[in-house]
Amino acid sequence: MMMKRVRTWGPLGIASALALLAVSCGGGDALGGAKEQAVAGPASIEIMLSEFTIDPTAISVTADPHIEFSVMNMGQAPHTFAVDVGDTTYTTDLIDPNVTVTLDVPALEAGTYPAYCTVSGHKDLGMLATITAGAAAAGAPSSAGMSAEMMAAMHEAGVDAFLAGDQTTTQGNQPLEPTMDGTTKVFTMTAASVRWEVSKGQFVDAMAFNGQVPGPQIDVEYGDHIRIVVENQLDQPTTLHLHGMTLPNGQDGVPYITQDPIMPGQVWTYELTVKDPPGMYVYHSHFNSTEQVGAGMYGALMIHPRDGLWPYPALTVDPRTGATTSGPAPAVDEETTMFLGDGPLGYTINGKSFPATSPIVVRRGDWVLIHMANDGSMLHPMHLHGYHFEVVAQDGFPLAQPYMADTLVIAPGQRFDVLVHAIHPGAWAFHCHILPHVEGPQGMYGMVTALVVQ
Ligand SMILES: [Cu+2]
Questions:
Q1: Are 327 and 314 in contact (CB under 8 A)?
Q2: How far is the CA of 283 from the centre of ligand 1 (A)?
Q3: Is 291 helix (H, G, I), strand (E, B) or coil?
Q4: How close is the Cα of 301 to the center of ligand 1, in Å?
Q5: Which of 367, 361, 226, 375 shows the shortest CA–CA distance to 298?
């Protein structure tokens, strides 16, 4: 599914590409389950709007005196329904939730026309449909009302934007510098609502620690005494749970089981001595977590090896038999963290949706250690093209028998560490293999990135 042509790295002319992009990151519906409604005769067509879909997404009409769209807003927020016929755009006024309005559009010449919500950002979140009129309707568009050329162009635009690599200005996982209180490392975090740019120009309501999705990375070592101070600036209670950590019961962050919730405006302090082996651990909200974690309240707590050396052995594979031989642990050249998310932010890797995801760029011959964590609510089988990666640790603990795989199912709450020996040059797609999470008629979106071996 990846690029066959030679690509260059660096800014490409992406303005036109972005204009073509209509990537849905609000969920699988708009792309994964296009429903078609064929209408003959004077057309009266029912349209249902919600966050963030237009139903149906593919509308076929015969050319007739005019088309009457009956537009119902089934969502929670105001939307519009606009039909772009080229020189004119016919649009409803802002439609409040639970209100139905009628939009009259004159007879359309044979062709395809985009229809979308004009509220800022909603089109890019998935409120986009295609109207196929007249002869073109009989000519059977290839998918979702688009011609083959349009499908290819939209797919290419997404890849170009990804490779241009300047997608959004924000990044999660930024290292959180502690302050020292004696020998205690003190980490300070603030939970607040933010508008988070999931993909270029696509801002969604998120909840974040220190304004980042994922939240800032807390870096510690075995034996460290740490304090995490959480200020709640949300308009709802929250708590912080240190997922996978061995800790005193009172520091476990579960409302009314181990603590009172942190009410809006309050500050809560967690304190413990790090007693777990090196690996990836996670912190996340444990209050209204469907919404709060889904909206971005999670981050990495990395326990680093004291000597900087990860204990994972290198497997050597006999290509004729597949037999593996365990060797000494290689020095890791590149280390990266990959958080998987689904929910209100769409399908994300590190809080971003393709094409705004960041590729993992390494040099040929590098040993790459990838820490993967799923803080969504769905399974995500992560698949790397062109390689077998070595699964070396689960939930922070080294596996007694590391094994080779190219697809690794990561359940909600799980973490896996994988080693990749980057010996095959090129850009290799790295994506979730639940296909509605990654690719539709308009190209790739969601949980797609690439391992780029230079
Ligand atoms: Cu997935």
A1: yes
A2: 21
A3: helix
A4: 23
A5: 375
Q: Pairing between strand 66-73 and 100-106?
A: antiparallel
Q: Which two tokens stand for residue 263?
A: 């009410």
Structure tokens at 198: 């999931």
Q: How far is the CA of 349 from the centre of ligand 1 (A)?
A: 10
pTM of the full structure? 0.71
The residue written with tokens 């962050």 in the block is: 253
Is the pLDDT at 197 greater than 80? The verdict is yes
Query: What is the distance between the terminal CA atoms of the chain, rounded to a whole angstrom?
Result: 19
- Span 398-419, average pLDDT: 96
Between residues 308 and 298, which one has the greater pLDDT? 298
Query: Please, which residues bridge with residue 49 across strands?
Result: 54, 73
- Neighbour tally for 379: CB within 10 Å: 16
384 and 436 Cβ atoms separated by less than 8 Å: no
- Longest Cα pair distance anywhere in the chain, in angstroms? 80
Q: For residues 313 and 401, give the distance between their C-alpha atoms in angstroms, rounded to a whole number.
A: 10
Coil, strand, or helix at residue 213?
coil
Q: What is the DSSP letter of 321?
A: T
Q: What is the C-alpha separation between 338 and 404, in angstroms, rounded?
A: 19
Q: What are phi and psi of 116, to 5 degrees?
A: -160, 170
Span from the CA of 381 to the centroid of ligand 1 (angstroms): 6
Task: Starting at the earlier edge strand, list the strands of the sheet with 128-133.
Answer: 36-39, 58-61, 128-133, 111-116, 82-84, 89-91
Ligand 1 centroid to residue 211 C-alpha, Å: 25
- Distance, CA of 227 to CA of 248 (rounded, Å): 13
With beta carbons less than 8 A apart as the criterion, state whether 160 and 12 touch.
Answer: yes
Q: What are the phi and psi torsion angles at 157 (to 5°)?
A: -60, -40
Average pLDDT for 234-254 = 95
Rounded distance from Cα 85 to ligand 1 centre (Å): 36
**Do 340 and 435 touch, CB atoms closer than 8 A?**
no
Nearest to 263 by CA among 286, 231, 295, 241: 231
- For tokens 């699964």, the residue is 391
| CA atoms of 166 and 357, how far apart (whole Å) | 10
